[in-house]
Amino acid sequence: MAVYGLTRVSTLDQAEGTSLDEQERKIEAIATVAGLSVDHIFTDAGISGSVPLSERPAGGELVALLQSGDTVVCSKIDRLFRSAADALTTVKEWQESGIDLIVVAFGADPVTASGTSKLMMGILSMVAEFERDLIRERMDEGRAAKKAKGGHIGGTAPFGFRKLGEGRGAMLEPVEAEQRAIDRMVSLKAKGSSLRGIAETVKNEFGFVVSHVAVKNALSRRGEQNKC
């Protein structure tokens, strides 16, 4: 029967701060209240909560060690799980295997020990998932806004543009010759030409070797620009 703690932060900056230390102190404290002694605390630093527990470096070690009679302690439910469904499924599996989970935010009793604990875990798991969805939505909106302003959101520059700058400040600048080729693509598409046919025409007329996928993306991007 072993007692394991687990801490996690999503960025290396947080790992260098006090967040991990605070999580460890809370884990040790709640274990003492529960009359337990923590045998080892596993730490995943700079690991996103979207990564399944078993696929994280330290989380994978923890999962591999767990046996019937063991107890896992964490400070908050989102330190362990990536979604409400993931939390509820895993906790059920652990319960059936004789493994307890104590979450500092829920008190010193295992989350399956009472109806109240189970209810709180379900509610807070969904809250954690909702918060991650909001963060993801904000990131998507930020990328869309940057793209609309001519910013580059990663990867190689699409046909018709060249990348200027690096990192968050990277921008896309139109390449005149390639833009003329895209104009021709638009014209050919309007006449009913296939994507592969358009790619072949662009190669013959402009000398640019582009795939039918690149043609599709260029037409899509031009359509989005025309809507703005």
UniProtKB/TrEMBL annotation:
In terms of InterPro entries, this protein maps to:
Resolv_N (IPR006119), Resolvase-like_N_sf (IPR036162), SSR_resolvase (IPR050639)
- Signal peptide positions are none
Keywords of the record: DNA recombination, DNA-binding
Superkingdom of this protein's organism: Bacteria
Q: Which residues form a coiled coil?
A: none
What positions does the domain Resolvase/invertase-type recombinase catalytic occupy? 2-150
Q: Does the keyword DNA-binding apply?
A: yes
The protein's name is: Recombinase family protein
